[in-house]
Design a protein that fits this description.
It comes from Irpex rosettiformis. The protein has helices spanning about 20-30, 45-55, 65-85, 100-105, 120-125, 145-150, 160-180, 195-205, 225-230, and strands spanning about 5-10, 35-40, 90-95, 135-140, 185-190. The chain is an alpha/beta fold. It has a single domain (about 5-234), classed as P-loop containing nucleotide triphosphate hydrolases (Rossmann fold, 3-Layer(aba) Sandwich). A five-stranded parallel β-sheet has the order 2-3-1-4-5, sandwiched between helices. The chain starts with 6 loop residues before the first strand and ends with a helix. About 35% of the residues are buried. The mean pLDDT is about 95. Bound molecules: 2'-deoxyguanosine-5'-monophosphate. 2'-deoxyguanosine-5'-monophosphate binds near residues 14 and 100.
Length: about 230
């Protein structure tokens, strides 16, 4: 069997240059004759994605649990096509994924509180358990000063300084846990010039995009747990 494609996730705060870096990486891969495509979450074109889009633009209000599950459902809608493309040898660059799902929801705080979480961290993680796991997650870390200098945040729901600060804190926890479970999590200083950021990203992915022999892992799939359960039924 041939090698499978690499699954590369790019995460980051708003104004981190994430979409630009993802597009530049795609061009570079295509120029190097690597079969690759770029996908983006939320995918605002599906029926679920349209509900998410309307929420982000503050055109509709939804319970925080409901919107969290819709973001996750939006990823599950594409999970089998991601697996299929990777199996066919195509590399996927994914602009935001389940890590944003946890970071943006688990950073919400209860009204009237400065830090008390509205949604439980483990609860936020659970709907994405079992999604295809990336071979590398690259987190573009931008400081508030540079984000402001890049024109500040836009009009959408989460594009506010205090929200972004809390989201960043949750990203740190997610990265530590992802690494702890054997995943590859790379934090890149996105305050640097775009070319320099791209060089760091390219160094991190250049071997992966030659194709991968090993199986595609599942997100937060605890193999030790599975073994314990199997043992119970032996
Ligand atoms: P973007 O299209 O990359 O600008 O993302 C739209 C916004 O939605 C951005 O502020 C981050 C946020 N976001 C992305 N994915 C999720 C998710 O799964 N859950 C939540 N709550 N927010 C998300």
């Amino acid at each position: 069997m041939g090698k499978r494609g690499a699954f590369i996730v790019i995460e980051g705060l708003d104004k981190s240059g994430k979409s630009t870096q993802a597009a530049t990486l795609l061009r570079r891969l295509q120029d190097s004759q690597v079969s690759a495509k770029l996908i983006k979450f939320p995918d605002r074109t599906t029926t679920i994605g349209k509900m998410v889009d309307s929420y982000l633009r503050s055109e509709s209000e939804l319970d925080d649990h409901v919107i969290h599950l819709l973001f996750s459902a939006n990823r599950w809608e594409l999970a089998s096509s991601i697996e299929e493309s990777l199996k066919q040898g195509e590399t996927i660059i994914c602009d935001r994924y389940a890590f944003s799902g946890i970071a943006f929801s688990a950073s919400k705080i209860r009204p009237g509180s400065h830090s008390y979480p509205l949604l439980d961290y483990a609860w936020c993680r659970s709907p994405d358990i079992g999604l295809p796991a990336p071979d590398i997650a690259i987190m573009l870390d931008v400081s508030q000063d540079v984000a402001q200098a890049r024109g500040g945040y836009g009009e959408e729901r989460y594009e506010k300084e205090d929200v972004q600060r809390r989201v960043r804190d949750v990203f740190v926890r997610i990265g530590e846990e992802f690494e702890g479970s054997g995943g590859k999590w790379l934090v890149v200083d996105a305050d640097e010039k775009p070319d320099e950021v791209q060089t760091v990203i390219w160094d991190a992915v250049k071997d992966l995009v030659k194709g991968i022999e090993g199986p595609l892992e599942k997100l937060w799939d605890d193999k030790r747990e599975a073994k314990n359960v199997d043992a119970l039924y032996m």
